[in-house]
Amino acid sequence: MWQRVFHLMLKEFLALLKDPASRAVLVLPPIIQTIIFGYAATLDLSHIRYGVYAEDRAAPARELLARFAGSPTFTQRVHLDSLEQGRALIDRGELLLVVHIGPRFSERLLRHRPAPVQVIIDGRNSNTAVIAQGYVHEIVDRFNARWIAEHAGWQPPLAHLVIRAWFNPNLESRWFIIPGIIGLLLQVVAMLVAGLSIARERESGTFDQLLVAPVRPFEILLGKALPGFLVGLAEGTLIVLIAVLWFQIPLVGRLAVLYAGMALFLFATIGVGLAISSLAVTMQQGLLGAFLFMVPSVLLSGFATPIANMPVIVQYLTLLNPLRYFMDILRGVFLEDASLHLLVGQFWPLLVIGLVNLAMAGWMFRHRLH
Amino acid sequence: MIKTSALGWVNRMQRLQGLLRKEFLQIVRDPSSIAIAFVMPMVLLLLFGYGVSLNARNVPVALVIDQPSGVAADFAGSFRQSEYLSVVQLPNMHVGKRALRAHRVDAVIHLRSQFAREVQAGRSAPIQVLLNGVDANTARIIRGYIEGSLSRWLQQRAERQGQQAARPVMLASRIWFNANVRSRNYLVPGLIAVIMTLIGAMLTALVVAREWERGTMEALMVTPVTIGEVLLGKLLPYFLLGMGGMATSVAMALWLFDVPLRGSVWVLFAVSAVFMLAALGMGLLISVSSRSQFVAGQAAIVSTFLPAFLLSGFIFDIHSMTGPIRLLTYLVPARYFVSFLQTGFLAGDVWPVIFVDVSALAIMAAILLGITLRRSRKRLD
């Protein structure tokens, strides 16, 4: 039996790799994507373009503005002559925010009276706006702490926070996103290799030949599943290497746990891919089916937006999504050194999803014939 | 002379009509195209509109109080009022750290035994906060919530003692265009760009690659139709499908998700039409350049869908990307469309923005369609 499976697998690999274009499509995009998206997909802001409308040029106002200029994120400053000008530039998307310091700012501060500073932020992308607002708050908080310490007459606040972030001390969103990209790209590869294999045979009419050959449906299934599995493992390794060597993402957990998770995820994804593949009549349907599965699966995986923010019903829906579990495994192993014990809850659903889908694909195999 | 050219026109229109009829029949017979044009936008918009949000609520937070006191109880009471935090009290830091490790809470707030004494002495007591920083963005949002709760508590305490919790600089920040920072308001318009990229580029790339793969394209070529007519015959039906998907999405954005449309509808549809042409051009170019559906499918995902998702400014801020990547975004049609959509929906008709975006899209459409035409001529030789 293994010999037959081996030959089927060989044939599958040949079909996949004999065409130089499809060979390139399997190897190059994951590398390019990991690098491009690794750089692009960050929620941290940098190079913030901001405008300053200062009606007060005295020392305290200059000191506050110097804090903006000294920050590595606020890099491009525009001096404004009026608030109107700032509004127009925000409208046109040329400035993310405008800082307005009123005429009596320094005077009020020196008289121990609170001095207001107005900030207007472009909210078209509200997440960016909230993050920028956070940065502005940080700068002003530091200015305040310094001012209280250096000038008599101000009371320090009764309590202050000493914050420490575990697993990602500098809160770099890249550490969160890049392990996620591994899951994203592996899913694309495994789904395409598995999801198209049966549809391709059906479209070119070789599927019937395969069925009259002296192999059992189970063996065909295995021969179809294994290439995707092996290609997936190889690409996964490549992307993990890029993440660690190129992007310097810490990999604090154990490789064995990572690979156990990767194998189970590939098993589940290929199961889904084969199930879709066995339902599709044409290659186009196979591709579209794979796509109709992949897009929601990425959205509901916690890749970019946390599952905890979703409505409860949608949260339950995510339990059917293999990528959701793999995201937890990836981030757990990369950043938290999560043990096998801590990830059991992620491992067994992947196994169940894979088994159910493979059974379904096998059943479809036998029954689509008649 | 005039007569023959008029006759030529009639012939040409007839041929085009025939091609269009064939294309429509093909679309109707394989319902997957219609599924991707109408079902996909709806599913995606429902998922995004209802499911995806960056606004965290009821964040589980542990509170550890080393020594109970009136001040600590007051603090705890104030934190419990927060609509964003869901506070559980844990007996000691050991349990607190374990809960953080097991993801049962996202943060641990620790009041040490000197807390009450320091507060009463006015010495600015340190409050230790441990965050799970894996998801940096969420961690930052949670940090903001905790800071907000703390300053509210300080305010309350000061007011009760008849003082003002005055800080030197009082920041008044306003977020324009989306004062309540509803993430839906920018995700839904951005999603329209992703959906139209899907319909335009993915669908045409696959459909036309199939014709090449099956050899039916060559069959078409031996008939008297010109290559331009074949492409036009492909372009028109999918253009209509795409605009249909677009109209569905806009209707859902406005009436289901209450996203405001501050610009005009006509401008919205005009710019969308230009974008649709660029997306279709991209899809046709991919299909002409690749020999098989497998390659076309992969190429379409890699060069259209993922960039539209990640490099368009839809979620990730373009200005924060590193230089070379930022330059790369100028080549992504969706970038201009996302910029236009977010402005058109939330800010209104800002002509300088519209002008730049439309010109870029028009140039791209022209180039992509031009190359497609040349390439498909060459392929025949």
Count of separate structural domains of chain B: 2
- Enumerate the strands of the largest sheet of chain B in spatial order, edge to edge or round the barrel: 2-1-3-4
Largest sheet of chain B: 4 strands, mixed
Biggest interface pair, residues each? A-B, 108 and 114 residues
The major sheet of chain A is characterized as: 4 strands, mixed
> Into which percent range does the helicity of residues of chain B fall?
55-70%
How many helices of chain B in DSSP terms?
14
Strand order in the sheet with the most strands of chain A: 2-1-3-4
Low-confidence stretches of chain A: none
Structure, described:
- The complex is a heterodimer of chains A (370) and B (381).
- With 370 residues, chain A is α/β, with parallel strands linked by helices.
- Chain A has 14 helices and 5 strands.
- Chain A folds into 2 domains: 235 residues, no CATH class; 103 residues, abc type-2 transporter like domain (abc type-2 transporter like fold, 3-Layer(aba) Sandwich).
- Chain A is elongated, with a radius of gyration of 28 Å.
- Chain B is an alpha/beta fold and 381 residues long.
- Chain B folds into 2 domains: 250 residues, no CATH class; 102 residues, 3-Layer(aba) Sandwich (abc type-2 transporter like fold).
- In chain B, helix 1 crosses helix 9.
- The longest helix of chain B has 31 residues.
- The interface between A and B is large, with 108 and 114 residues.
- Chain B: It holds the Pfam family ABC2_membrane_3.
Question: What distinguishing features does this structure have?
Answer:
heterodimer, A: about 375 residues, alpha/beta, abc type-2 transporter like fold, 4-stranded mixed sheet, 5 strands, B: about 375 residues, 2 domains, transmembrane (chain A), transmembrane helix (chain A), ABC transmembrane type-2 domain-containing protein (chain A), transport (chain A), ABC2_TM_bact-type (chain A)
